[in-house]
Please model this.
Amino acid sequence: MTWQTCSPSALRIFMSVEIDKQFTQGLALHQQGKLAQSKVLYEAVLKANPRHFDALHLLGVVEMSLGNSDAAVNLISSALKEKKNATDAYYNLGLALDAANRKEQAIKAYDDCLRLNPKNFSALNNKSKSQRDIGKYQEAIVSSNTAIAIKPDYAAAYFNRALALTELKQWDAALDSYNKAISIKPDYAEAYFSRGSVLKEVRRMNEALDSYEIGVNLKPDFEYSFGTLLHLKMITCDWEDFQSNVFKLIENLRKNKRSSPSFPVLALIDSLPMHYKASEIWVNDKHPPNSSLGAIGKLKCKEKIRIGYYSADFFNHATSYLMAELFELHNRAKFELIGFSFGPNEQDEMQQRVSAAFDSFIRVDHKTDKEIASMSRGMGIDIAIDLKGFTHGCRTGIFAYRAAPIQVNYIGYPGTMAADYIDYLIADPTLIPIKNQKFYSEKIVYLPDSYQVNDRHRVISDKTMTRHELGLPKDSFVFCCFNNNYKITPDTFDGWIRILNAVEGSVLWLLESNHSAGINLRKEASHRGLDPNRLIFAKRMKLPEHLARHKAADLFIDTFPCNAHTTASDALWAGLPVLTCMGESFASRVSASLLNAIELPELITSTQEQFEAMAIDLATHPTKLKAIKHKLERNRLTTALFDTPRFCKHIESAYTAMYERYQADLAPDHIYIQPQGSI
Model:
């Protein structure tokens, strides 16, 4: 018996029919959302015909839907080798490359799509997003405008244009675009959230809250919206459902939900594990390591260590007020200083002073994160100091690309960044006891006094401001707190009320960050049975006059869990004692760090009960408070806190220790700097 076989041509026809059948079944499953099953059939098609364009393309789409963006890029790229003029494949390749954080290549893929179909408004809109993601904001606006010209009712294009305008701080134009997107698509939750953020920037707080609340109602689980809305409420001292919201935030973080940016958490929860978790979720999502520049090569040992300071705050800002003298004092025989400024070009007094202190001061606000990191590498930066962390205006992406072989988190963000590419965090023994090192991804650099640098040349105005001029009662005891309003929690406020009730006729002098906060705090005082007129609000004023008005107060009482930072230094520099309560987190131990450095540890408490008792004791025993004020006056210029030359020696020793470990091919490790005398 002999077997009959098909002819070669008949076999090819049979195989082709089977392949088409498998592909059709896979496509049907794909359209039903059964991705795993469709993937099996597409793979079967490709096993029989590795050059099957549709199977390569759609398997790439499936992989992208499953979160495998690198596999998607490879498959769709292979498909395009088989069919070079496939518009949809170029479009999907752009999506996959964008998801893989390969933004420049994504833009090229969208351009290839648009070369074949210039009217593809979706490709233009997605191109705008990729351009914005790498900081090409003007180009992003052009792409959005082109999409809008093709499709005038395209809400997503107005939204993307608004996002780019927001990055350029063109607030009015951004609001117009958000409003247009919302008018076209009234349920556009993302547009409400982003509009709320712009309204916050222009200090239209009630409108910002309204916009955010509409967004949350439309999309309750939208990423990071819960914590952002809670932070907006804290800025206006709107404490409705505060405790339940904080409990929910903690639960969301425990579940690894993208519930809040990391920064707002610092002022809500005194928990190192929660601070770490919030940063970890944020950085892994928004700023994961990016290897597209390749590994950074080993730098040769130099005579001068090249330090790069990176900030958006080189102008009249708290960071520059603290750091200006340090920049001026750095030992130029051992260090070369480069300032990378991605903030506003204010040309104010502090920007002129700071820029003159650097060996090179480079404006990089027009450059992408990748371009700045590449520039830093090209300049041979040895140590890159991030002065922003996760605070407003940060550019964490620069460090995700590895701008320098040694990267450091300092002064801007009071906590861990939970980023593998940040090697060190500069702190001190008060801020981070050794037992707490496990809650920080960075290796800790321990300075011997306080982590916080100060400028001895901060001018205190000689203008005499009477209590009457400042709206204060002449003979009352004046407690004050000039911290930002978002740091005031209901528990902190309850403690303040108890203190005021215990000290007859006393008043509390607060900074009014916004009008709504003042209204809400007076309302909260009334609800607690206190005359709201015992709360007095100060407006913002220039720093010399602000420092001078501290003389009208008797005692600064701190917030918890996020302490006074620069505001504590301001008060101590102006001669006003600061009473604080210390917790476990970095943010809750800053005032204690400063008080230890100025040798006033008696003003550090560790429980709310101690804090209130000491505030009342000092207010009702004038001789005790007078003795502390005299001690502060003696210590102000004779202890470590305001000894900037001493601080400069310490931080330069830290930089040298980091650099020596690097040159010896040793991994970063905790560094302990020994005390040194002043210059």
Q: What stands out?
A: The first helix runs from residue 8 to 31. The chain has 28 helices and 14 strands. The longest strand covers residues 305-311.
